[in-house]
Task: structure prediction
Amino acid sequence: MSDKTYYDLDLSQTITKNRLVGLWRMMKGYQWFYIGATTALAIATISRTGIYLVLRRFIDDIVIAGNFGQGMMVIILMFIGLALLQGSFTFVSGWLAAKTAEGITRRLRNFLFDHLQRLPFAYHAEAQTGDLVARATSDIDAINRFYSDQAIGIGRILLMFVVNFVALLQLNTRLALISVIAIPAIIAVSIYFFSRVSKAYEAYQEQEATLSSRIQENLTGVRVVKAFARQGYENYKFDQENWRKFKLGKQLLSIHSLFWPISDIICGAQMLSSFFIGAIMALNGEITVGTYMAFISLVIWIIWPMRNLGRLIVQTSTGMVSYKRVTELLQEERESLLEGDYTPTGDAMGEIIFQDVCFEYEQDNLVLNGVSFTCNPGDVIALLGSTGSGKTTLVNLLPRFYDPTSGLITLDSVDITSYPRKYLRSQIGIVEQEPFLFSRSIRENITYGVHREVSQEEIIQAAEFAAIHDVIMEFPKDYDTLVGERGVTLSGGQKQRVAIARALLKNPRILILDDSTSSVDTETEMHIRAALEHLMQTRTTFIIAHRIQSVMDADLILVFDKGEIVQKGTHKELMQTSGMYQDIFDIQTKIEVELEKEISSVNL
Amino acid sequence: MSTYEEFDEKDYGKLSTPILQRLLGLLKPHWRWVVGFLVCIALVSMIDAYTTYLSAQIIDDGILAGSREAIVRTIFIYGGVMLLQAGFAFGFIYLTGVLGERVRYDMRKSMFTHLQQLSLSYFSQTPVGWIMARLTSDTERLADLMTWGLLDVTWATINIGTAAVFMFIINPNLALIVLATLPIMIVVAFRFRIRILHHYRRSRKMNSKITGAFNEGITGVRVIKALAREDDNLKEFGELTDGMYEASYRAAWLSALFLPTVQVISAIGLGIVLWRGGMQVQVGIMTIGGIQAFVSYMTFIMWPIQDMARVYAQMQNAVASAERIFNLIDTEPDVKNRPRTVKTETIAGEIRFDNVHFHYEADDPVIKGLNFHVRQGEMVALVGPTGGGKTTIVNLLCRFYEPTQGTIYFNGVDYQDMKLQDIQSRIGMVLQTPHLFSGSIRENIRYGKLNATDEETEAAAKMAGAHDFIMQFEKGYEQDVGEGGNLLSVGQKQLISIARAILAQPELFIMDEATSSVDTLTEALIQRGMDRLMEGRTSFVIAHRLSTIKRADKIIVIEDGQMQEMGTHRELINQKGKYYNLYTRQFRQELEAQYDIFNQPEAAKA
Result:
């Protein structure tokens, strides 16, 4: 691992009741940048207002006074200087705001990503993938917009108002007061309008989603559409949704096409009445022509930006909702990978003892009940039983995906809760029946989670042992072929063999195996069986077994029923006592007899 | 990491005459709307420039001339044109926006309609996501360019043009100075915009990678935890967010620099104007109102310039979108009717495969010389390992694909001489993973015969053995099946798709049996439903269950694109070849499942 930290702040500590305070705390480390951005913005705004005040001097003291000389040059240089000042500080403000917003967002993304992968198994078992992804992506985007656009945008409008209004007051108090009469109306109309727009927009977006899933359904069901020759009907169904989207878009546009002209008229009326009164005052000599000219420019900068305030305020409220959704995730407790006071320096031996272990997902619903057994290093333990009898739950306790509700599990005579999870998991390899593969190359999938450099020879060797090398070589880019929608789709059996190759490279002391080789042909099955046997050598192995062949050689067979071990022993021992195991074996024999009968009956 | 990059090889396109013509073709049916919004925006734009001129008049003719009457009159004119402008603003927003929606609607419609004509091979080679992007983001982008983009450019050009005219009226000399600064501002603005767009696109790409990483991090969390890969993952993810930070920071940084730069250039121009203009007031060829007007024109000239630059940048993108969209529309279906077709009343009868070959790519044959014939009413079981070519045979039979060599005959007629619709409307199909469409159960069954009455629909469901479980739903036949039918179990979906096929009364029936386990009762129902469907019909079954295979009139063992064995159950068992091995293995597995030794393997995952 490099020393680089991907987040320097525990964001779960920044959450408070007040969301604005929470958003401020989330900025830690960037707060000065943001203050800087605001200050720069204020300087830029003041500079622009200054430009108009200089213009006033230019008209009154130079042009009207007929005083063309050095004074004029000074004023023009002041004019350009202020423009430069305004430009530079506008840039500085935007730059600092971008630095802040992007920096905070990067930290938040990193933190949330890490947070999600460190939340306990129990959390992920309950959570909806789509919801988590939405919070991690679109909600974070909304928070990014809050920092980069909304907060600074509201600040800009308010600053413009304050600075220009103060300047107006300097020019003429009465004029200043007259010029802001309509502003409450403008803000009210704009908030009303944008909250309606955001509702209409939501409906429009929803229809967009409906339309997309219609297309998706059509594309994935293309064989059915063609088999029934239903192209015309599909067109008709699509057109309905398509037309509905057009209609909703039209509605949205109607609201827009009303708001902008109406707000134009309100702003225009305010502007014109200010112009009129100003002009009359100038005519009467109450203000100078220069003052009038500065005045009308400042009025424009006060009034028109106000129309956007509603948009920003409405968008901010959606940003707040996103913030809340993200903090809900941040509040969840992580499971530590490192906690635990016992970290052996070398590999584990692999002696595992269960003592009266019970487990429940919900209260009073025991999934494992008083499970006790001992397994020596290198033993093969077979777990038999019907679905829901507790086999999978039992193996989930070993890497501490879950901890027992009561009872004790020891590894090499030490309580496994004393081991850091990271150590335990580095000692355990899992081969699932149909493991999840990542949309990367086959090579990366095989070396995934093998924490060391692996040579190509080693990879090929592992793949050969796992009886997958030949399959891989048939893919377009052999080991570099991508898995998933962009590349090849692997069958369940092939995925399992990739996982076997991975386990071989990882070389763990303890192996958990879901032994199922359904839907492969006899030859491949033999290969897989050989690969598994190779894998099991010298390791403590837990097999979730589905057939008797893989159980017969086990050192200990545990027969499960409703969370309890009903029988345990070796094949030999269990065959001598009547019970579930014997029943199963009898059936197996019976099947062979029946098969023989069936084959010979063919010619009768 | 997987991305769409390989497919979206092009981000920028060059506007060529053929593309421009096709783009204009999209607007042609709605030319009245186009004229409407162009007129509205032109008037809005002219009024914008005119009101600045009015402001100058208030100063010159009103205040400085001491005419109260002139002030009142000008303010009234001002108010009048603003009201007019508001009206035109209403017009252009409504017209442009609605037209944009309409163009989107049209484009989606023509693409969707075209997609329905394309052959199966197109869909097996093109990712769904790629097609989706054409119908969504590309459509948006293109429609925006053709409506709002066109509007912005029109507004900007007319605005600058009108302002130039008024500036020339006020003072030709100074107007020339302003016009001299224009090209500089335009070049600077365009360059900025292209750079910004470049970084923005990079950030979008990073963003989709980040979404992908979140997706995998969450769905693959079990593997990640088991392999203790958290630290490596964070490191990889950190590289993505670093890339994202870099791209969006650059884009924001350039945006922050863009406007101030243009502003400063215009301020310098304005400084020169003030200096020269001030002098000219002295000699009486320039008025104070005139100076005011120039100040306004110069201050606000950056908006049209920035709009033009934005549209220019968007255009590069949108042209690439247009190319992709037209590419989709221009794709010819591989399988289509021949110029001359035979009239077909029925496809029932003998079916013959004569030396049929098939390949997607020339060096990789999928089917290698297949010969067999099937009599009317026979049931054919196709068996063999996955990837051996069973599904391709079925696709050839449905004429989703056509043989690359050899011929398939229906009743002695080459099926490529028949109309596609005549063949496909007479085929009933039940897929391994049945595909249902969102909507009610009734709608899904009716898919087999759109004008079926409720009685017919229910009769089909009863025959399929689906009626009983349907009636157990609160809403019965009106029960919603969810997206892709995911509110129903696999067995239920299969029963509904059998009912759908029964309702269609096909002449040829094709079934891909499910490998996944369903409960015994449903299994029996499915068997019975299939029996009813196959009665008197020719049928092909990709078979996985022994009971199905044993009943077949003909069993064909397919492996490696070739027919390995063919015959009845008895004949093939006696051969003791591939079928024999396959049968015995399957027999053990089925009995194990039947005796419920440890439940079916598939169910054990849960």
About this structure: The radius of gyration of chain B is 35 Å. Confidence is low (pLDDT under 50) at residues 1-9, 599-606 of chain B. The CA atoms of residues 361 and 404 of chain B lie 10 Å apart.
